[in-house]
Amino acid sequence: MLSSRTITVLLRLWQALPVLFGVIVVTFLLTRALPGDPAVYFAGPAADAESIAEIRKSLGLDKSLPQQFLIYLDDLSRGDLGQSLSTGQSVLADLTTRLPASLELTFAALLLSTMIAIPLGILAALNPGHLIDHACRLLVTMGVSLPTFFTGLVLVFFFYYLLGWAPSPIGRLDFAYLPPPHVTGFYTIDALLAGDPETAWAAAAQVFLPAVTLALFTLAPIARMTRAAMIQALSSEYIRTARAAGLSSRKVILTYALGNAMLPVVTTLGMVFSFTLGANVLVEKVFAWPGIGSYAVEALVVSDYAAVQGFVLSMAILFVLLNLFVDIVYTLIDPRIGSAT
Amino acid sequence: MTEIKPSRRGLLKGAGALALSAPMLPMLKVLPASAAKADTAVVVIGQTINSLDIHRKGTNRPSYQIAVNCYDRLVSFGTKTLADGSLSYDYSTLKPDLAENWSTTEDGKSIIFKLRANAVFWDGSPVTAEDVKWSLDRAVSLGGFPAVQMKAGSLIKPEQFVVIDEKTFKIDLIRPSKLTLPDLAVPVPMIINSKLAKKNATAKDPWATEYLHRNPAGSGAYKVARWDPGQQLVYERNDKWTSGPLPGVKRVIVREVPSGSTRRALLERKDVDLSFGISDKDAIELASKDGLKVTATPIENCIYCLGVNLKFDAFKDKKVRQAIAYAVPYEEIFKAAAYGNGVKMWGGASTKPADTSWPQPFPYSTDLDKAKALLSETAFKDGFEVPLAINQSLSSWMEPTALLIQESLAKIGIKATIEKIPGANWRTAALVEKRLPLHLENFGGWLNYPDYYFFWAYIKGHLFNSSNYDNPEVKALVDETLHMEIDNPDYAPKVKRLIEIAFDDVPRIPLWQPTLSSGMTSDLEGYEFWFHRQLDARKFKKA
Question: What is the pTM of this model?
């Protein structure tokens, strides 16, 4: 017998299938609706009509839309996401190198961000209207209102250019190092797995500044949500009861209030994670980070259909999994939720 | 930062390090312990290399550097030292590359090349006439840009390429042309190791495009030691190179760093040796920094200009075009958009060109009264509205230029509205459909002859004639001069006439001749400008 939680998970995955199919159809149509003709673009500026026609044929763009779609579905079913013209690699290869790079950066940023934002939010909630609350508000407002490329450049300017503390902002590893053997795609973890702490340290040093940049940007939603949820929790009756029962304020705040306040915070984290993953294009540019955001933007600009489709599809799958993960975390935080779905 | 971490690292790494990128390459798996700063040069570029094969469909410009650094051609251009002490290729001299000498047959219908006896590919196999034939066949057969470029040199079909014996090769000419030999020195007709390539060809892919895309097989100065697409490319010196003196550095690391500000910071900290292709603003500002030098080379046969499309009613009248040419605020544009980094293309002394040099300043300068006067002689004296199109991908110079033109045209009653066109659509709109009434254009010809520029940009239906200019006299003159040797007594007068017509008719209003600027540390020597505007590391040397 499957446990009710397993059934919930399977049900959720099954429900995701039509969503994914919808995503496939919509991205296919949207990429075709983009202005610009990839055959012309990739034929190069000096190409003549004949060579453009050749390229159109080799891209399969001379066929009708429904035909193209069927071919695309057929390729997909074989796990073939096509060739990206702008990078010259298969989309699958691009995604398997770039997605881990983005994930590593995003995870590092979120880890930093939650480590600062949640305590900050709790402190602000405990002292609403006091100095710490205002300081928290100031910090998060600054973080969210400074554009990330600006924060990134300022950090590079001080910590790399002036002080020389940070390593060259030149991607995932400095010149002197070679990428560790591919296991997870996260350089720090892979290097540790390979028993090479030096490379792991170098990779961690490279990720630090971009992660701080992104963390500053993501502080706001997490800190604000923690503060709001905590204030609500702290004013609820069960807290009053707990206090009346004489529980220590540490127990009241960390166990009862925070435990209940975590639900909206986890939801927010899920959302922040997803937009950070796709939206850190500018940070990627400043730090030469070979991530997925800049890949998608470059592909979009030149109407590189296969790359755009592959990106949207992989993001859609990631979102489905992420939502599932968030739901499962809910059931862990709040046992009432599990069976109700 | 270019220091290579010694010892252990090299031994530990290795297997599996490459699983991410191109597993078939005999890639650099270790950075050898002996590597010291002096024999490694680190270069940063803003764009990405998307193929190691220039013949492949969709290969972008930054990838052309592989064709130059990793492959040889039959012939190459010489090198000259410019007035500022920097090096540039010299289109006026051809020098041996893989061919040690060549001669035109008495009937003038063929050129015979004698290959260097000791030339070998990286795998040690000798370079033979078979390889040359296979490579040139490939360049004309795969279609797309390589075929178009070969055609410019009247090289159009495999039947023209004949193997005489192992070291002798013949090209049959379809017409005698001054463009044939220079066209053999551009990046496209590179010589590939055909034995190796054929081994990796398939029935579906007889030209081994999939293999050569990732695995260069040449005889050139550098091999590709490692390629991580989207991140870096590492060249390693080929110690068996015979076509020139060995490069002074053993290894060149090319890193892709998209942000210009980051590239500048890296160079200023001297963590990299060369930042290739910097902005005009950086070029001016970096030149005065200690320990750095900037090389700004005017790009031959290239002009940034304002295209005035004759499809648009008002621009059919020559006087309207001239009025616009007098209304353009050249000096302000040059300062704001190019930071004064370039060659002025306005304020020429006479309406008749003194010589055949190209590009040369046109006889216009900003004179609003003259512009108004010219406009008042036309049917459009009350002014008109016209969209001024710019390419978003090139907005760094096009946007300030367009704003200044817009402001100035308003003073003579022409209301220009700026239309931004995304990079992916620009070619279709500007060059194929040729539907942009007023637009900015940046054509430059690889082969450095004025008639070659006119061929592409002033003849009806030709790609870069985005102004739809049509003049039978220009057509006739270009037809006559395009293949004519420049020492022919008819050549100079005819080209001068072409330039004079361009002065008078102004379907293209030149703004300035742009430069290719690169910043480097003072230790790095041997940077050389090439018309293809990509990195040539073959003469690199570090002090």
Answer: 0.85
